[in-house]
Amino acid sequence: MTTTRHHKGRTYHSHLLRRSYREGARVRNETLGNLSHLPDALIDIIRRSLKGETFVPVAEAFTVTA
């Protein structure tokens, strides 16, 4: 989840790993981790992995023939 905050004319973006759960009649959110310090490419891989996409190492994806 990406959150955006504005303060004194600047925009701040945070990348948070969160989960939602129900507590009685209310829906609550819990922050599991702050991913803001990670590179954007790695955040994209984490996002795609959480959606169910699988990744294969390059060495296993191709066979090298001489």
TrEMBL record:
Protein name: Transposase-like protein
Gene source species: mine drainage metagenome
